Amino acid sequence: MTSLQKLAAETAQQFVKTYGRLPRWIVAAPGRVNVIGEHTDYNDGFVLPMAIEHYAVMAADRSMDGNNVVHIRDTSGAEPVLVDLSAPVQPGLPQWGNYPRGVIAGFLGRGINPGGLDVLLHSTVPLGGGLSSSAALEVSTATLIEVVSGQKIDPVAKALLCQKAENDFAGVPCGIMDQFVSVMGRQNHLLLLDCRSRKIELVPMNDAAVSLMIINTNVKHELVGGGYAERRAQCELAAKILGVPALRDATAEMLESAKAKMDEMVFRRARHVIGEIERTVHAAEGVRASNWPAVGQLMYASHDSVRDDYEVSCPELDVVVELAEAVGLKGGIYGCRMTGGGFGGCAVALVKTEQVEAISEKISAGYKKKTKIEATIFVTRPAAGATVIKA
Q1: Against a cut of 0.90, is the pTM above it?
Q2: Which residues carry out catalysis?
């Protein structure tokens, strides 16, 4: 039994406890980790994410009372969400409900009405670690509506509908990566996503001798004073000075020759993005060729760049990467970097599968000694995207 089937069976049992009957439908959507390609998405660049073996599972049945309401309970005991389908769907409380609300509104806007439902959500995607628990919840909701209504929508349209839900209902200005991976992830493949054309290339990673280790620092520093918006503006300014539509279209040589025309900080932000886009494309080539040492070196170079030029790392993430470098290739680590928006959250390491336990112990002990914080560590292989388990 796969971990997903097991999770689905647990969710079905919980559904029976909650609603007193078996669910008619069960669907799941995964979280994701970005292997490389940080802060390149809003610069029209490339990202190289994959779906992880942690999911948001939804079990559902028609509501018994015949009301046109979607009733969502969560196994964590969070406040339930009620979405009345007979009135225009608006953002509201509890806040976590805005993710499914936005998705339901998107489907209603397309003339697809799921009707009244009793739903139970069970998610194993860690919250607040930058592993896209929100995208998993959105895509799981969208997949449920598709299976209940019998109307599937195009995968790209589905991902964009979920992204719009997060932008408009949850007020999070995320790019397209998280939802695309949660919808279109494929087992044993990374996804090379071109954020300009929205084209996806599946990059096979069939070598079971390597895995990805996710190290959650269990810290989250606030993005001080709108750090994200500020960096976006700096990238746009650099592109304007270089006379290109986006930093995707610039080269390191172009940047170097325009150095005198821009502020030193703007120069460094652009240097990160231009270098990171190139590293991402090379990393995809390395994965295709199973050249793990090369991929690992690109991951380390990526971390140095987000730390020094883009300045979105933090002391705890830097400690994890330093510990990984100390373990080194001999100890089974090819490379490591922070992943996600930064200022906390997770690091991702490319590791030898057979040395996972020893690596986990070393990083865990070293991190606790230096930061007094317990890290949460798990290993994953590239997982499948949105799945219908019971229809």
Answers
A1: yes
A2: 178
